[in-house]
Amino acid sequence: MKFIKSASSGSAVRKLQFYLSLAGYPLAETGVFDSITETAVKEFQKKKSLDIDGKVGNMTWAAIFKNVYKDDFFSDQIINSFLQADEYYHDVLPKNAIYLHHTAGNFNPKSTLRWWETDHYNSGASRHICTPFCIGRRSSIVGKENTEYDGVTYRCFNEINWAHHLGVRDNYKKDKSTVGIEICAFGWLYKDDGGFYYQADKEKNTRKVYLKEEEVHQFENPWRGKSYFEKYTEKQIAETKRLILTLAYLFDIELPDREYSKDWFSIQNDALEGKPGIWTHVNVRKDKTDCFPQPELIDMLNTLHKEQKDFKPILKESDRVVEEPEPVVVDSTITIETENTDDNLEGVDETQPQPVVETEPIVEQPVVEVLDNDTTDVVVENITMEAETIEVVDRSVSANVPAFEMHDLFRINEL
Hints:
6-stranded mixed beta sheet
């Protein structure tokens, strides 16, 4: 969120007026930081024991979000299924960008949530790797029909908080200041005489999961070395668009007027520099394939800038009654304004996981494959969970992957 003060104008001021109205200071959303708005800001700052200067910077924005942005604030159109409290960080942080991922897993978002809750170090400590949103899909698996989760979003934690989801070398600055959206999809596939299939570990000859041909996107020329991908569904793309527009509205994220194309699905310097907008994992990581340049996804991205101006999200009316908040917790390591960083992943070997500074030691993890049974028991590190559908592991297993990237061994989440 931008720093604003008296005489400021624009969308950030409208957002301030919107949130202060929810906090009990009725204001018209004029977009002009007038004397009435300044008085409301000062009254809010006094009530929250902040410096009473009438200016809205990091501390005041954080206090506003802490006061107004409740766990069930987002929408009636999603399912709140929060992870355990120790699976993510609880700092209250406004956001400046949105990142798209796909899970490299099956169609059921609940499987991804279960993985996040058991993806721990040997010590039992959480890796804090997850995103606040996960969008399910219809089943593409031959012989397994299921449309229950197609386009259905599960909300895993409050998006004003944060977790690791990018794995770039910037002291987690982008993780803290961005919102991640996971789209359920297997990702890249193999092909043989039997058709298109997903295989967890080719060297170990794990089970092949065949997909319907109509659910597969085929590149004429390989993209990032891969020719076949499970398509994102129409309902997933529509729900992704709704989430992007809603989050852009709530956090005042400008969606740039640019032309998205296949070429955009590559390293982007603006993304590396932390600039606002909508990005995918491939914009900051050469070793990732989420999300891939499916034409229908590109078409959706090209509608965002035009539709943002008139978009109004559906918010839960019950959240208009604001309770007295707890003391504000602010992460002093992050600056809300967009900042340039000297990160540059150009020239990095894209076949190797990117090293990330991590306080936990590198640990070995077992390789686990779960077959397609509705009540399969999965045992990982002596933790047992019930899986309703397919859980999968990585195709290329190495025990010496940096700890932060160890989820890649299981290919549940291509974070």
